[in-house]
Amino acid sequence: MKKFIVFICLVLILGICYMYRENIMLFYYDKFVYANKKVEPPKRNSYYRAYDFSFVKNTKNFAPQNYQDLLNIYYTVLNSGVNEFSFFCPKDYEDCLSEVDALANDNTTLSNINNFVHPYNSFSDIKTKYNDLGKVTIEINKIYNQTKIKEINTKIEQIINSLQFTNDKLENIKLIHDYIINHSKYDTDRSDNNIANYDSDTAYGNLIEGYSLCGGYADSMELFLEQLHIKSFKIASDNHIWNAVNLDNKWYHLDLTWDDPVSSNKQDILEYNFFMITTSELIDLKTNQHTYDKNVYKEI
Fold it and tell me: 66, 227, 251, 293: least surrounded by Cβ within 10 Å?
């Protein structure tokens, strides 16, 4: 009889536990998991950039209190170069998970954040997973694999050794600008006919294969600017991307794509219309592809 009573009690306890499993999990999470959970900053790879911007900044705070904190966390994670990272939404940030969900599905904002990190740490695909207990996990697939990075870095070193760099940073930027344009062509097959013969939206297509779209020009320039220790980021409109460069504490636009125009007779052309120009000068050129979000790219 005693065994039967014990059995009934166990069944009742298990039934109650099952009925209230979510509340029990929440209690366990609050009292034992989250209360003792300290999120360590992601480990940084060699392509980490110690740059803060108006739109996003590196952070050590992984217990967000608002949407800006979330933006800073995503930037810090991408900028660090990790492939996966988890943090927790605090109980007192009631909209945290809904704002995480909104950010995870906002491709424009994620792409904008991507433009502030080193090209080698930028993502080709980013996914966010979260549960009702507030755990958020960011999973990142990068654009550049280690094989291509090694090949690009070897090429960059060869190019740098071949150029006559001086102490004049502007002149050095011009040398790189000219080299990239003179040694690559705009990939019209891909832009006009969607024929992807080359990896032309990356620095690999630009520097190794010799064919490029705007993303390839911008990434290549960004890699060289990193070598010169010149602060920069990529700046994007709806269908175009170029570089923003900080020289002597002033920001300038640098667009190699538009300085390498496609001529009707296939002749190679090198121009300087978009070489280190101010925003007012860019506006005066009245193009239809350089209208960008000034709430994101506030520096320039």
Answer: 66
Containing 127, the helix (H) or strand (E) segment is strand 123-130
Q: How far apart are CA 126 and CA 115, in angstroms?
A: 14
Give the DSSP letter of residue 173. H
Low-confidence ranges of the chain (pLDDT < 50): 35-36
Q: 120: helix, coil or strand?
A: helix
Pick from 22, 59, 60: which is nearest to 40 by CA?
Answer: 60
pTM for the full predicted model:
0.88
Give 265's contacts (C-beta < 8 A, 6+ positions apart). none
The pLDDT, as a whole number, for residue 72 is: 98
Closest CA to 179 of 142, 221, 149: 221
Distance CA 40, CA 85 (A): 10
Instruction: For the domain covering 146-284, report its CATH number.
Output: 3.10.620.30
Q: How many residues does the chain have?
A: 300
Q: d(Cα 273, Cα 264) in Å, to the nearest integer?
A: 19
Q: Is 124 helix (H, G, I), strand (E, B) or coil?
A: strand
